[in-house]
Amino acid sequence: MLRRIVDLREGEGRVLASTSAILALLTGAHTILETARDTLFLSKLPPSRLAWVYVLLAVLSLFAGALSSAMSKRFGRRAGFVATLGICAYAVVLLYLREPTPPTVFVLYVATGVIGTILTLQFWLFAGQLFTVAQGKRLFGPMAAGGVAGATLGATTAALLLRSITPTSLLLASAGMFLVAGVVVTAIPAAEGIDAEDRSPTRAFSGLTDIELLRSDRYVALVGGLVAIATATVLLADYLFKSSAARMLGPDKLGMFLGVFYAVQNAVALVVQVFIAGPLVRRLGVTTTLLVFPVLLLTGGVGVVITGAFAMTLALKGTDGSLRHSLHRVTTELLLLPLPVETRDRAKRLIETLIGRGAQAVAAASIVALSMFGLGDAQTLGIIIAGLSLAWVGTAIAIRSPYLDVFRRALARGELPDGTHELDLSSVETIMESLASTDEAQVIAAIDLLATTKRRRLLPALILYHESPIVLERALDVFANEPRRDFQPLAERLLGHPEAGVRAEAVRALAAAGRREAAEMALDDSDPKVRAYAAFFLAVEAPDPHTDARIVAMIGDTTSEGSQLRRALLDVIGEHGDDRWSDVVVDVVHREPGRRPLGPSAASAIQRTRTTSLASYVVEHLAIREGRSQYRTALVSLGTAGFDALRDAFADPSVPERLQRQLPRAVAAFGTQEAVDLLSERLDAETSDSLRYRILRALGRLSTDARNGVVGRLKFDRKRFERHAELQLTEYLRLFELTLAIERKVPPSPVADSAPRPASPERASSYPRAEGDSPVADVLVGLLRDRIATELEISFRFLQLAHRNEDIESVHYAVVRGDKRARATALEFLDLLTIDEALVRSLLRVVVDELDPQERVRRSKEIIETERAALAPIGHDEAVKRLIRNDDPLLAALAAAYATEAGLPELVTLARQEVERRPELMRLGRERFVPRLELSHA
Q1: Which of 131, 482, 613, 824 could form a disulfide with 456 if both were Cys (CB 3.0 to 4.6 A apart)?
Q2: Up-side HSE of residue 933: CA atoms within 13 Å toward CB?
Q3: What does pTM read for this prediction?
Q4: Residue-range definition of the domain harbouring residue 284
């Protein structure tokens, strides 16, 4: 039943239920706390003190938000959330244990507001880590409805409990619910990053940096002004309600009244959110719906001014409580939706911090001033509320035109929201205007939006008179998916269009509408694409298209157009086919002479039909550049068959190197835990440095995608990658020592010395060198420097996989390109990060610290070498020997050439032996080095 109401996918039910329960417990506990707070405050203190509370809350809420974010970063989102719930429960119990004196009640009121701010932010930070962006779009709405339901139950519970207990005792019920919520939080399955700590600095008031947006963007300024007016209005309405309730009701009736009132108010809010807000916005449009809330408040304010009756105050507050968190929040969010993503994020930050809290502070200060001058009566407040509501209405009217302008710009950019957001009337009007544009990109964007928001029937058939072939093809595509008749006469006219793509789409649209005669006529078209479309849509309803005579004829066509026809047939199958066309795809693929590469056409057809028998064919064609990305996508669509084919290719030593290089990225495209495990296993087993590097990059891509919510949660073996980082750092330091030994004897090259070098541990070139001229030596040293830089980069890539929630890339940049201060900061960060990894920590200290090259070598040998004899520095000749024996053939060939040129007998003999043992060194010597380096004489 739940799946019919909510778009719930496999594995999401438990997490959604748990998070909804947490939110319901939080809102229920906070509502109970608010009931107790308001009852005690209005019983013990004069209503005028509320103004001071509002001012204090506006200020403290800024600090509360910063503190909440800092706790989540420092302790992990789960631990921070649980700790916050425990602290809040403890604070509430402490307040319960104290006598409800005026100071205690004042503190209770402030604490309740701060608790609400912190826990709300903590919850959404926690939920944001549990769900990806795509999941959030589907599930956050139902989750929020659970919060409103929790508030309703909380208020009802408070009203029932107050029949038998004191308001102070409600604090214990609230604290207990906070603790239960904490238990539920701990029971939720672990997700990637949810328990991770982040020791990077936190910007406390990031919203303050976005003030410039108010000056540069008039639309954002209008939205900000609307929010500010709304915030001030509802705060004054809240003050009027509470002060009037305190005057009209005695302390013995106040608690019961507030409990019942809040229960009814939240129940109405739930009904509005679930049943009214969405349909109202769709029917009236965003800008018109914006007027509903302020008009009702204006009516209530005028009623208070005229009658002064408490009933009008109740109506005013009831309107506020029922619509503020449902209708008003929905329309405000929709106002920001057409903005570019970056601008929208900045605007939300600004509105939620500076504008919202600032408006609260100003309104509260105004109440204080009014009270000081004796103007805090109901009629005066009613006049101010009515005036602010009128200003609110004026701002809402003024925002209509800029909203449409922003919507038009978003339409032109193609940045409008997807189908999860339904269009209102004004938005549809703007789209219809865009359909008449001469800018084909804007017209396409408008058509796409009508299609994705299920408003296809609004696309006029007259669009087929448009002069752009691209627009015509897109419009015909929409008509093909919508059962209509009005477009058919115009589509028939397009069967004679000069563009083959337009004719093909016209055939498809007419065939989908039942006009088979149009497709039969197109079988004689001069273009292979149109003929393929016609044959496909004539056979599309057949139970077995593989036996259709027209399809069989195309597959067996031996004329000069045969290949074009088959490729066109694959194209149309890739766009519109299904699994019934699998045999056709297999026949076409095997029909091509010499299995000629069919590129993206074959890939899209295999993907569409899920032809698992061609998985090996797809893997083979990863070696060909044309269509490679489509073949990767096709493999993913084949599921287990595609993954198994990649696994087999990885294990096959006869696979060509050109194909091997493409396997890691193809595996990473699956975005699954199995992909992580396979790549990790191959990383351990692989001996080729170039392939290991590609595997490492593929794992990095998977890690980034998982962190950004592009794929699901993935687990990486932290210890495995720490071990690889350790080995890579060790290799880096050994190569550093060899380079240093070679550089002492190599004279500086004018070209090499004129080139800028990074401020990094590779700066061993500062050592004085002997005089001479050795181009081979310059090439060798240049290659060694490149290898050193690569080893360091790979080491940091392994560290990034071991510590996935850290920005190791920036640390690597600071180490390689940063100044002395940046490197020191990076060293301190790495020291803290690897505090539990003694060897990696020691190696990083040697690598990153500002050390003399010889001192770096000495310290590294103390860490790496186990035998005392190995602690002595390596000399030049020993370094050359080790390089000649190096597993890297290019490095070994260069070292052999260098030894031959140097003419040292022992080194020349070793070079000759190594060349005889490894013939590839001779080939590299002839292909890569200058002709006078005669390795053949070595």
Answers
A1: 482
A2: 27
A3: 0.61
A4: 211-386
